[in-house]
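Exercise 7b. Backbone tokens:
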């Protein structure tokens, strides 16, 4: 990757970020606070179903005059041994392409809704696709320099999950662990991110609901070895690895047992993007005890430490220039959202994590600068409240990113701005018993 020039950090922004990072005791939820009350109605009616999303994408392609190319990159719900019948195929995994994979152009890959109950990223992605499909001068200048590929829903099974006859989006995919289908002993332990009973946090009451369809947290199924396929490994070695809690855990890459993770990875390998953006949802924070603004977004440019593949011994590490670009991308997002003393500017860093089995972790270790965008609230905790504001929180930084890559002004962003973003603190705890999952 080309070397990136250094610029002066905007001192006022850096100082304001540092000043807002003071943290004392974690605040607790209050009545009518961010978490919903028992039996409180949650509306999801403004969000698109799979069918509505597909129809919208098809209409946008038809009206784009050839600027947008819509393709099916794969299908959900495929076991490692393949589809048994055509009827076994799940939902299509669509990719929207603006421009081809061209080494002479900058490139961005954006994915949303890797967890099915994180909808706003998808809604924002559709707005971005609509804008990029237009014939405006700004868009044409961007796409002349930058290829932008968007996968607006990479967990369609979880997104359209049903519970007791009602729409109930869930974090997980739909797929059953069947080790014998890949020549492993029947009792071999599933990957640690397998949800065996098909359960999800409850929406209007404490505890969990059991919708009964097993599946995986797709965002733990990636691997820094992008060509890893569990069915191709030495089965004795895999069995020992999976049956040992010391190795079957989040410190290691995933097993690529889901069609979704395999499909997204194949798209990544085709494009080899300079920047990879993944949009998530999370819980709730305030900036500090002195600043009680609700944090709309947390950002991260780093989510994985140097990694050694336990099966091949190959070593992976984020390239220095790649990390610098990642910090610049996230710093630009932070700058974009500084709009006076508004909630848009109440930004934090995502907590330090080492998750090589996430899409962001695996792709960062394969030379993509990354931006994790974690906006507040999930289906069960926010519904569609504040959807307009949160969509803008996603869209505005991405529009600025496209322009900055096109005119190369990204090179003038000081990565120290990213370093100065306040650390995650003042998490507002769920007053029920449900606050047990990591968001990302």
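Sequence design result:
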């Amino acid at each position: 990757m080309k070397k990136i020039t250094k610029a002066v950090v905007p001192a006022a922004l850096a100082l304001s970020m540092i000043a807002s990072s003071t943290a004392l005791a974690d605040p607790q939820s209050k009545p009518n606070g961010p978490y919903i009350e028992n039996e409180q109605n949650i509306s999801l009616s403004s969000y698109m179903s799979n069918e509505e999303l597909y129809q919208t994408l098809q209409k946008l392609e038809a009206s784009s005059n050839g600027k947008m190319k819509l393709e099916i990159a794969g299908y959900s719900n495929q076991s490692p041994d393949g589809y048994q019948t055509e009827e076994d195929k799940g939902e299509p995994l669509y990719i929207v392409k603006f421009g081809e994979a061209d080494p002479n152009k900058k490139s961005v890959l954006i994915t949303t809704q890797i967890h099915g109950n994180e909808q706003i990223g998808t809604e924002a992605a559709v707005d971005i696709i609509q804008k990029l499909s237009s014939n405006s001068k700004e868009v044409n200048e961007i796409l002349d320099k930058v290829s932008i590929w968007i996968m607006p829903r990479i967990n369609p099974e979880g997104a359209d999950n049903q519970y007791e006859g009602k729409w109930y989006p869930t974090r997980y995919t739909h797929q059953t662990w069947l080790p014998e289908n890949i020549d492993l002993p029947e009792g071999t332990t599933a990957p640690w991110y397998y949800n065996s009973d098909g359960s999800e946090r409850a929406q209007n009451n404490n505890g969990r609901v059991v919708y009964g369809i097993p599946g995986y947290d797709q965002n733990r199924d990636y691997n820094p070895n992008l060509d890893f396929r569990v069915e191709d490994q030495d089965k004795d070695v895999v069995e020992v690895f999976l049956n040992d809690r010391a190795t079957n855990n989040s410190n290691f890459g995933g097993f690529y047992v889901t069609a979704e993770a395999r499909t997204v990875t194949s798209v990544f390998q085709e494009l080899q993007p300079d920047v990879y953006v993944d949009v998530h949802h999370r819980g709730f924070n305030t900036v500090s005890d002195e600043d009680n603004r609700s944090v709309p977004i947390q950002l991260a440019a780093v989510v994985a430490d140097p990694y050694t593949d336990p099966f091949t011994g190959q070593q992976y590490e984020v390239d220095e220039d790649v990390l610098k670009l990642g910090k610049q991308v996230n710093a630009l997002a932070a700058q974009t959202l500084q709009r006076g003393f508004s909630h848009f500017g109440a930004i934090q860093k995502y907590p330090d994590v080492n998750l090589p089995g996430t899409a962001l972790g695996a792709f960062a270790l394969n030379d993509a600068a990354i931006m994790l965008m974690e906006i507040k609230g999930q289906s069960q905790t926010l519904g569609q409240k504040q959807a307009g504001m949160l969509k803008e929180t996603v869209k505005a930084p991405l529009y600025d990113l496209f322009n900055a890559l096109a005119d190369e002004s990204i090179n003038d962003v000081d990565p120290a701005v990213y370093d100065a973003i306040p650390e995650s603190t003042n998490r507002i705890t769920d007053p029920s018993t449900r606050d047990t999952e990591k968001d990302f």
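Instructor comment: Confidence is low (pLDDT under 50) at residues 1-29. Residues 387-406 form the longest helix (20 residues).
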